[in-house]
Amino acid sequence: MSTTSDFIHHYEPATDATRPPLLLLHGTGGDETDLLPVGRIVAPGAALLSPRGQVLERGMPRFFRRLAEGVFDEADLRARTDDLAAFIRDAQQRHGLAPLVAVGFSNGANIAAALLLRHPGLLRGAALLRAMVPFADAPAGPLKGTPVLLLSGLMDPIVPAENSRALATQLQGAGASVTHRDLPAGHGLSQQDLSLVRDWVAAL
Ligand code: MLT
Q1: Where would I find the Phospholipase/carboxylesterase/thioesterase domain in this sequence (predicted)?
Q2: pLDDT at 28 over 90
Q3: Residues in contact with ligand 1 (CB, 6 Å cut-off)
Q4: What is the value of pTM for the model shown?
Q5: Based on C-alpha coordinates, what's the Rg of the chain?
Q6: Which residues form the domain of 123?
């Protein structure tokens, strides 16, 4: 499998050094610009690091391959997760960043969950918006209390409720400190997602 840890990305330096830097991970069909407005709302003044997924599915960028909707190519996911971890470590050094807080949506939330499980200690925390279980057999932490906010949509046609509950259980089992909320929403983000992420980031 040939992938590279050099991602096309957008980097925005902090204007408020008290804010933790954010790692923004877009959904299928998005790019490095998609979540910049979300980052600016949930953590005004924070440094923003926003890579573009390296896989193309019918022209749509993603962070890893899937075999069908919700069915992941786990070997590809493992390799892409490791590449993204290497990119994050490089970017942290290059820009002198503290550990990042991931804010991931959909496919981006799924690779953020994979980063937590495969690279415990890399992220300061993660807000997972409409995430699913990334690995059938998850590596078991140790996440040592890493804060995770998992926001699911009660009317989400892509992520079944039992799947997001299983992810919460998996992350808790690996030692993360998980807050899981079911919102009256579908797969798309709502205003409530933004306020909850903003409050959660402010409390980190
Ligand atoms: C995925 O493939 O990561 C999930 O099905 C979410 C999506 O991107 O549609």
Answers
A1: 17-202
A2: yes
A3: 27-28, 66, 69-70, 106-107, 110, 132, 158
A4: 0.96
A5: 15
A6: 2-202
